[in-house]
Amino acid sequence: MASKKHNDHYTDYFGITDKKVPFEDLDVHNDTRLFLDPHLVRLRTSPRPYWDQAVKCLDTFLETLTVRVLSRNEDPGDLLKHIQEPPETHLGMARHGYRGHAASDVIAQRIWESLTTDLYSLFRVGLLEHIEDLPLFVRGIDRDITSDITTRVFFDSLAQFTMSCMRQIPELSSRGTIQIEKTVWDPSHKQWAQRTYTVPKNNDGSGIILIPRGWVRKRLLGSASRFLQTETLTYIQHSRAQYDHRGKLVTPSKKTLRKELAKEPHQANIFYTEAAKRNRQNLIAQFWQYVDERYTEKGPNLGDGLARP
Description:
The chain has two domains: 10-217, no CATH class; 224-300, no CATH class. Helices cover 42% and strands 9% of the residues. It has eleven helices and six strands. The chain has helices spanning 10-13, 38-44, 50-70, 105-116, 120-124, 143-153, 155-168, 224-240, 254-261, 265-278, 283-298; strands at 35-36, 177-186, 191-200, 216-217, 242-243, 249-250. Strand 5 and strand 6 form a beta hairpin. Helix 3 runs antiparallel to helix 7 (155-168) and helix 8 crosses helix 11 (283-298).
């Protein structure tokens, strides 16, 4: 395993002089604390055709997962079996080198139990439409696990993008290439399949998979805490609003509500999303519309300041 003795990025390692490359120029020796964000990818709409295929993979995977959840099976079969972190992307939170702790079978089972119990009603009424909805409600699916799942689901798109970059930038093959065999999601047949790819070779003999520029962030656009702040607390404020003896409309403060719900944000999000649905409100759709509007305004510079006024 390589240790971090220096900060070689891909362009340095492969001797690429033009730094305006179409991929994220990551550290070749170690994980970089950036994460693939499925909603960010959805908003980017490029590069094509890799973007089209990636979104198709995300959507067909969630469709298949939904069918499996609604069937009330005791386990997901092999659907969540392959969501472990692929080390070739150099993304994530490994402390030494880039072979971080994967989304293990235990984590996959915990996710499945949450989907088939806590989230069953949201699946049943069709509120959960995209993979990026899951971190809003499932404890344990944070930016790292979300990135792992996202990477595995559209790994084929990333591999195809990598091989396209190799054809455009010959230096990527200057240190040799290697064949890697991976289990990837096949959106046409809606199942996992084995594929082989020829990719750039790292100094330790492993392969490198490139990420299109602009597909990663330090934090997800959608998280449980962000959904709580922007939608759940706003809904509670409106539902608990009352007129006092002077006829003034009084609402509880978000600060007070946040203290009340901070220990169980995922459960609060589920409970009030269900309550809002009964009142013909779709908090999930409202949330993503708000995020998209703010992203349109600020683009990649969008930070954590997403709370509704």
